[in-house]
Amino acid sequence: MNVASRLPDSAAAALADRPATSAKPPFLGFGLGLRHQHYDEILGGNPPIDWFEVISENYMLPGGQPLRTLDRICERYPVVMHGVSMSIASTAPPNFEYLQALKDLAGRVEPKWVSDHLCWTGVHGKNLHDLLPIPYTKEALDHVVSRVQLVQDFLGRAIALENVSTYVQFNNSEMTEWEFLSELSRRSGCWLLFDVNNVYVSAFNHGYDPMTFLNGIPADRVVQFHMAGHSHMGTHIIDTHDHPVCDDVWELYAAALKRFGRVSTMIERDDNIPPLDELVAEIARTREMAEKILPAKQTE
Amino acid sequence: MSDFARQQAEFQRGILDGDDTVLSEILDSPREKRETLFGVYRYAYGSRLVEAMRNDHELLHLYLGDEMFDEMGHAYVKARPSAHPNLRWFSQGLPAFLKSTEPYATHIELSDLAALEKALNDAFDAAEGRVVELNDMTGFAPEAWSGLKFQPHPSASRLDLATSASAIWLALKNDETPPDAVALEQPAHLLIWRQDVTPMFRELPAEEAMMWDEAANGIPFGVLCEMLATYDDPDSTAGRGAGYLHGWITAGLLTDVSVGS
Which of A261, A264, A278, B115 lies in disulfide reach of B95, CB 3.0 to 4.6 Å? Predict the structure, then answer.
């Protein structure tokens, strides 16, 4: 039951849909997901990377080298925090200890924004450490809207949520994923992290046109693009983040630029981590494509 | 329970227990059957957690080899599902699991090796703390020394091993063939800590281990020296105690020294 439905009308109206009114985060340019394999090269050189996204959980630690390195990165670059464990769509009670640790880290990092995924990671006290799919139902939408509002109130900031790669669809879904995301963003005020690769993966896995997804997302709510690689299994694609970005995803990125305009973009590699140069070359390509497709003033 | 909550519980049971109930609520894709697609989540669950264990226990993995480590890892995943949102803490229970679960419990060095790796991992990202320098000690008047109390650095911990696991660890770390595992007549007393950003460990004589443990309990230096007298030559206890203290300070093992009340 929605808490708001048990309150007097005026209070219920105030607590129902409360889109955050925070200003849209700034355009950061073309960045990279920070991985420990590249710490020395980044801090010892001056690679052409505009900003970094850090995995929040990797730094939700008492101390030591990871946090010391993060402090040094934050001194030099704009940073955004990207989590994998918020479990925003879980029907279990929120983990407030986790949220407090996330808030504490945000206090230290002062990120340009904080993001996680539209997914759940476990119920009944267990954590499966995966980005699990949800049915796109009105019930699920109401639940996730209320959770996003709660988390935003707790953290004191609007969050961004990413579309995940999915391998299954539920037969009780009442709307499409892009309708769900659009409505979630409109009602809760959360921003959207548009993972271009994930759109491609899910579209292939479920047999729809990725352009339909792309055109169904409200352009003014998107604050970040993820670009990544995947593993093609023939009948389905697995979102492994261990390969370079493929041609089809570059093509979808071009379409995303045309629809969404100037959006902070980054290369995300989680496994089979290559030398920094290879990723810098992919970042350069995101920049070149944006400069080619968008009017000059938009990519400055 | 709402439909949404019921569906999540079924989905989770499908992954953890192999229960197929949730499949009736999942669609086939245009190219693949739902069993195969749901299988992506089933496979990813175990493999992701075992991969995390490989990262946390690099030398135990080397010692056991891929096949045995993965078999052990999947047994651990099954026995102790993760309850923490951060994967960093998933393998914390591995030493206890290896100590209490056959066939691993028979090979007692496995639990010790895992405990040593866990202690080093914990030192790596332990809380920061001030490091006491030798110069800090010059401020104490000679008559104050017997009352000095010592606070260990937050990264410091003690571990007693019943086997030759530390020798096995060292050999594996140096890409050498590990020695045969043996049960020790007396436990090996290890002190683990982080120096700057590097986790370290060293083996302590029995009396130094006792002195460290009691110092960490708040026993003042004068009493520690009296306790040392019960271990070896009573006439040299002050010198031995001062020597151990010097070693702790130069290694960055103390975060505070104060005159006790």
Answer: B115
